[in-house]
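Researcher: Good morning. I'm working through a list of sequences from a screen, and I'd like to move beyond sequence-only analysis. For each chain I'm collecting a predicted structure so we can compare shapes side by side. This is the next one on the list. No need for commentary yet; just the structure.
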Amino acid sequence: WKTSSCTVQSRLQAMLCFANFWFLSLLFSFTAAARLEEQQDLHEGRLHQGMHLDENETVLCGSSAVQITTSWVLPVLDLTGPFESTWRAIPVSVTDEFKISGYLLCIRNELMKRPDLPVVCPAANIGQPVHLVVQTVARPAHELYLKAFAGAFANVGGFATLATQAASMFLSTAGAAAIASLAANPSDFNLDALISTLMEKMDHSSTKVVKLYSDRLAGARNSAFLTLSDPTRKGFAGGVVKFKCTEGVAPGTQHSRAYVTLESRDENLPITAKHLALLIISLAA
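Model: Good morning. Structure tokens for this chain:
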């Protein structure tokens, strides 16, 4: 009987040990899941508070996130690779119209891979307008653009106004104030420095994530293209910026060429990829 009693007692202890082990395992699983969820919530909260998202940015702006083309005629070739590596200028002509499509953030990042690449136009069009059409624009930004340029050719002063507005959207108060100071007396020289500074500060702004990863910039695709045609006659929808095709000398050479330019008090300033980047995100954000 004693032996039988011990055996029963041993079985009960074993069952209790197993029950305790099962309970502790279950508790550990729930605790681990709760901690994981808490970490995810914390991570998401930090993202919204302005932490850098280089990994997320890389995922969003992968190899196929942006497409660059120059033709509307099929087959349309993706020229993003040549733009990054071999292009010597961004073209706009009767047969070649530069177009870039993708998420706004990725469009901005792509253009900033070749920030100083100039935009060129045909010599036959010197003195004529060249239009940048942004497919989807934000109404407040478009109204600001209309006020800045008043329907005329885009100019250095109006561009500085847009840069100041962009700084207020994408930078901290101190960063925006620094840009506003540069834009207070715009010139050909400091406009170039202003845009470079703005783009650099956007990459390190504590508010970058809050702004650049909003639905408008990371949740919807957009496109922009350059054209010699009058967009209103062609029925193109979206915001339109009007530049002028002007003769100039290529940097480091004695050869003249027709460039797409901003009007200036001194001589017209050729626009580059970084000017396009700033205009597109300023009008569409």
